[in-house]
Amino acid sequence: MTALLKTLIVDDEQLARERLKSLVKELNAGEIIAEAGNGKQAIEAIQQQHPDIVLMDIRMPGMDGIEAAKHIAAMEDPPAVIFTTAFGDYALDAFDAHAVDYLLKPIRRERLEEAIKRARKMTQSIIESLQDELPRTRTHLSVFVQGNIQLIPVDEILFFHADQKYVSVFTRNQEVLIEESLKSLEKEFSKNFLRIHRSTLVAKNKIDTLEKNSEGKYQIRLKGLDEALPVSRRMISPVKAALRKL
């Protein structure tokens, strides 16, 4: 290997990061430009440092490696991602099926050299396919603001509202547009969000009251939101049933 690739190492364990740094230096395979301890820190480092390769653990607290890779793949010029993992064989089959490279811990020098040689950039389709095999619910949504990714914690979202082909995400402090369907969001976040209208999903833990307005129509009030959200007639029964379980 001749060209030194700018490399970001992402692992929540300091010893694991030190091991990877040592191997990369032994191989003279890259310039370590930054380290991160979880997926969110990795995304911030990528936007600041623009690495060529990211060596990233899968299981990390907060945002894990699979979710981080999904956000990374949405970037305009994403780096190549090589996962490091202690997963069992069932998960490794999924990586093989989608041509995503991984390093099984403990990482061997020869295997790292091979992975760096054939590193490829992540694409959204690869990550979505991988996520179908290794399902996980995101902790954050990503939106582009002035060319940079902004991460929105899912637990801060009050509700989603669909209008034609866009979905608006509402938090206590902002409203942003995302290019995801309400149907896919409902499928992914069904444990945490409730459909009250064909165009609206609300956060279950933000629901304050279900009430009737002056016209006798049902509406939901959310904590931290002044306006009430209408409940469609078709959704009244399932909404009432869901609220009884909360």
The gist of it:
This protein has 246 residues and is of the alpha/beta class.
Oligomer: single chain
Q: What structural class is derived from the secondary structure elements?
A: alpha/beta
- Our estimate of the beta-strand percent is 25-35%
The CATH C-level class name of the largest domain: Alpha Beta
Largest sheet: 5 strands, parallel
Overall form: elongated
Gap from first CA to last CA: 58 Å
Assign the CATH architecture of the largest domain: 3-Layer(aba) Sandwich
Helix content: 25-40%
Number of domains: 2
Cα-based radius of gyration, to the nearest Å: 21 Å
Integer average pLDDT: 90
Overview of the molecule:
With 246 residues, this protein is of the alpha/beta class. The protein folds into 2 domains: 5-133, Rossmann fold, CATH 3.40.50; 156-245, OB fold (Dihydrolipoamide Acetyltransferase, E2P) (Beta Barrel). It has helices spanning 14-27, 39-49, 65-73, 89-97, 109-117, 124-133, 182-188, 236-245, and strands at 5-10, 30-36, 53-57, 80-85, 102-104, 140-145, 148-153, 157-163, 166-171, 175-178, 193-197, 200-203, 207-212, 218-222, 229-230. Strand 11 (193-197) and strand 12 (200-203) form a beta hairpin. It is elongated, with a radius of gyration of 21 Å. The relative contact order is 0.10. The model has no long low-confidence stretch (mean pLDDT 90).
